[in-house]
């Protein structure tokens, strides 16, 4: 699939709604990525429909490292400037949408790398959650932790059967960041279930995720899921894009404000947890258990 961005004059400008990110030392991962061509993503835009498809392609698990997250973030920002209408986020893998944060890069890493990783995660979440684009996660594989974060930050989730989805942070020894809690609560039918899920590291099957309201639809194939994704984006075709985007932004504004206020604290919690010898020991064992499955 060709990697290209096409100018779409037919759709009204949404980019004026996007506040520029404050570039600080901690956003270096994105800044670095922006000078390089994409390595781990493929972006295609259908200029007839105004729908972009961003395909995650970092084998074997689409584990999120700083470069990869910077690339996804930059693609979203580019699409906003190009006046795209909707974005479908999917995976090139037939098994894994994303296995979350790259745990191999969290193991025995120095502080600067850990900081780069977490800031890239924060920046990616902020960009995806706040984008005026109509966003759909086409979950064609397992979506664990950071993978689930990508799904719940999108507006609509369509999943293929027989995969797993959920946030297992407390199981891997990490507290769920408050911005992810808020994002999860934003889509779950009940706050009580959300609290239960996140404290217990509940992982759903595709089928039970549909019943619980964590995903919106199932599709039997990627082709069907693509059609359903386009149909969701098209369902807004008779609405003014700008009015829709402002309304979305208003719904999400408080969560974003809370995030900005707690951003440093959130980073500090992650850094202090990751640097604990007991956490590193656990991580080493966890990574071994993933390898031992072979
Ligand atoms: C919540 C968001 C905000 C909070 C911060 C975010 C934190 C996180 O995201 S922590 C990450 C937590 N993720 C996990 O615990 C997932 C661990 N992985 C799995 O459970 C499984 O791999 C799977 C269900 C995603 C897929 O299972 P399967 O199809 O059986 O594939 P393998 O287990 O054989 O994995 C293939 C390959 O990928 C490597 N890998 C898997 N997960 C990760 C990871 N998170 N980071 C780095 N690498 C990962 C795995 O080691 C295998 O590698 P190879 O041995 O080189 O093939």
Q: What would you say this structure looks like, in words?
A:
- The chain is of the alpha/beta class and 294 residues long.
- It has a single domain, classed as 2-enoyl-CoA Hydratase, Chain A, domain 1, CATH 3.90.226.10.
- It contains ten helices and ten strands.
- It has helices at residues 28-33, 66-81, 111-130, 146-153, 178-187, 191-200, 206-212, 222-234, 241-274, 277-292; strands at residues 41-46, 51-56, 86-91, 96-98, 134-139, 142-144, 156-159, 164-166, 203-205, 217-218.
- The strands form two sheets. A six-stranded mixed sheet has the order 1-2-3-5-7-10, with helices on both faces. Strands 4-6-8-9 form a four-stranded mixed sheet.
- Helix 3 runs parallel beside helix 4.
- The structure holds ligand LGGBLMCM.
- Keywords: Acetylation, Fatty acid metabolism, Isomerase, Lipid metabolism, Mitochondrion, Transit peptide.
- In what order do the strands lie side by side in the largest sheet? 1-2-3-5-7-10
Order of helices and strands: HEEHEEHEEHEEHHEHEHHH
Name the shape in a single word: globular
Assign the CATH architecture.
Answer: Alpha-Beta Complex
Q: How big is the Rg? A: 18 Å
- The mean pLDDT is 90
Helical fraction: 40-55%
Structural domain tally: 1
Detail the poorly predicted runs.
Answer: 1-11, 20-33
- CATH topology annotation: 2-enoyl-CoA Hydratase, Chain A, domain 1
Got a strand count?
10
What's the CATH class, please?
Alpha Beta
- The quaternary organization reads as single chain
**SS-derived structural category:** alpha/beta
Q: How many alpha or pi helices?
A: 10
End-to-end distance: 32 Å
